[in-house]
Amino acid sequence: MSKYPVEISDNEGIIDAVNYLLSGPSGLGQFFKGFSSYTDAYITGNFRLPYSQVTPAAFYVAPINCSTAEQLDDRTFKYTFSAAQPTPPFANGNNISGQGWANSFYNGGTGSIGVAECTTTYVIFRTGFSYPGIGDDLAGGQVYWNATEGGSDISTDCNARVVVSGATDRVFISAQINNLISYTTSVSSDLTYTVAVNRYYAEANSDPINPEFIFSFDKTISQKTYNLTGITGSGSLPEIETIFTTVIDDPVPKFYWYILDIRFETTVGDLQVTECRVNLRSLSAQVVKE
Q: Which of 146, 161, 192 finishes a domain?
C-alpha cells in the first residue's frame, strides 16, 4: 500500500519529487479540468450550449422570404414567413440573420441568445440585451442562417473552466479534434479552416433571469490554419486531424474558460459549409502552481 508522505531517506531527490506529486493542491495532478469523447457528433454552430448534438446540425439555411418582423418585448422578436416551410428551418440557438428589411434593426445577425422557437410559419429569437422601442417592420424582408458568415469563431464542446489564483500559476493545455467538413459550391472555391485554443474570462452577471457568468473573448493561445483550394461541387473534405500538445498559458489570476474554437472563411468562390461532424475530440486544462 502506498503512503504519503514518503519517509525513506536513502534517496532524497526521488523522495522530494514523489512528495511534490502527491502533495495535494500545490502539486501536479491537481486543478485539472477537461473533456474527451469518441462519440460521433455534429457541431451546432450556436453561440450557446449545446455546441454539438448527436443528430446532423445544419450550418446553412438559404434566405427565406418573410412578410413581417415584430417586436414581442424588449428582448424578443419574431419573423413571420411569407409561405409555410416544409419543416421548421431553424434550430434553437441558431444566430439567424435578416436582410432586406426597411427597419435596419432586423438586418444582420441576432447574436446570442438566438432562436428560441421555430415552426413552419415563423421563427422567434431572443437577444442578450434589452432593446426597447424597436418597433415592427411590415414591409417584408428575408431571414437565413449561415454559421460561417464573416469568419466567426464557432465553439466546440472541447472546453474546460479553471481558476487561476496565483501570479505565478501556469495553465497547461492539450487538445485534439478530428473534423469531417461537408460543403456545397457552384464554382471552384478556396476555404481557410482554422482551429484555435481560445481563452475567455468570466464576468459577474447582474441579470436575475440568467445569473450565470458571462464569458468574453480574451486571447487566442494557439491556432492552426489549413488553406484548402480548388474545391468544387458538393461533398465532404478528407477528415482533418488537429492536435495541440502542451500549450502553456500564463494569465493573470481570474476565472477562465478555454475553448477549442473552429473558424471557416471562403476566400475564393461561394462555398458554403453545410455541416461539420466530429468524432475524437478532447481538451484538458491543468493549473500548475509554482
A: 146
